[in-house]
Amino acid sequence: MNTRSSKESQTVRDRIVDAALDEFYGSGFHGATMRTIGNRAGCSAANVYNHFESKSELLVEILRSASDAQFTATRNALRKAGDDPARRWEVAVAAHALFAARMPRECLVANTELRYLDDVDRKRVVGSRDAQEQLFVELAQAGVGKGVFVIPRVHEAVTAVLTMCSGIPLWFRPDGPLTAQEVAEDYGRFALNLVGYRSD
Amino acid sequence: MNTRSSKESQTVRDRIVDAALDEFYGSGFHGATMRTIGNRAGCSAANVYNHFESKSELLVEILRSASDAQFTATRNALRKAGDDPARRWEVAVAAHALFAARMPRECLVANTELRYLDDVDRKRVVGSRDAQEQLFVELAQAGVGKGVFVIPRVHEAVTAVLTMCSGIPLWFRPDGPLTAQEVAEDYGRFALNLVGYRSD
């Protein structure tokens, strides 16, 4: 395959992924078909099958890359956050929340359609998600270790915080009264409060 | 209709509602059909149509009665909660969380399938949900009014707390290490922390 056709093929693949995301978001995993995905992407179902062997494969690709991108955003924010465990926790939650506000389709599909994957495919997606959760557990544990967070069960608090962030796409609108950045900062503050942190 | 046939009809109706809940939960709104719902309830699709004119009508019935039951549980808990706004907020969130832990199918279907209803049907469901949210907004405002809660935007905090509760069915297991009651109390405490309440 020469460079040009490789590029074209990449473009079609991206269009298919984007179309599948719209279809999963609008009609659900069960409502979407390879044909409706192809229609939306401007190609045939056969062409969709050239790139992805099944609808599940498309969902895995979408969920895994969204999770990876969200994880990367959080780690990038942490790189500039310094050493204070409270600040690191707040910054990480704010970055996670910001992603949710900016990538609503990916986050909603991840929340609602993951359960339709079989066990093997679900494991492929959940690995990336578990790694993210583990990062937040470590950040919370650092605060508990320093005695600045007061929570009896770290995992439970982390789950509560990540769930709260995952709900942002359900109500946040880019043209609403709050910017994505303001929402993200509020959520960082909520998370800091939730773990019983006191600044004084 | 005499008493006996009215009772039998009620039983079939209940079985259909329960079967529909399982189907919506397992296969999603788009994956479920009146036939698969009938199969699961032990009756024909025609019989399902005798009780509900459409799949949407079934989803409306399920979501509305779940929301009403959760609302009732919260108000019952508040009746015994006294006057302190912090205590009232904590008790209300704990009751809401307890319902989510004990009625996972209803809560998950409400979270994921509501978007498939058309505007009119969605309004019929959302009214009950909005009333619940309004109650929490009033409870939070009471705390802000007394100066014991410190949050810039009450609605945003209420949404965060209700979302966090709605995620409980995603991980809570009755045979897990925590009881539903323990989870509910932890969530009450999280909510109290989140709004910046300090007991001293």
Mind explaining what this structure looks like?
The structure is a homodimer of 200-residue chains. With 200 residues, chain A is mostly helical. The first copy, chain A, folds into 2 domains: 1-53, Arc Repressor Mutant, subunit A (Orthogonal Bundle); 62-194, Tetracycline Repressor, domain 2 (Orthogonal Bundle). In chain A, 78% of the residues lie in helices and 0% in strands. Chain A has 10 helices and no strands. The longest helix of chain A is centred in the N-terminal third of the chain and has 29 residues, at 3-31. The model of chain A has no long low-confidence stretch (mean pLDDT 92). Chains A, B: Residues 10-70 form the HTH tetR-type domain. Chains A, B: This is Putative TetR family transcriptional regulator. Chains A, B: One of its GO terms (molecular function) is DNA-binding transcription factor activity. Chains A, B: It comes from Gordonia rhizosphera NBRC 16068. Chains A, B: Residues 33-52 bind DNA.
What fraction strand of chain A?
under 5%
Overall structural domain count of chain A:
2
Overall residue-averaged pLDDT value of chain A: 92
Tell me how many strands of chain A there are.
0
Oligomer: homodimer
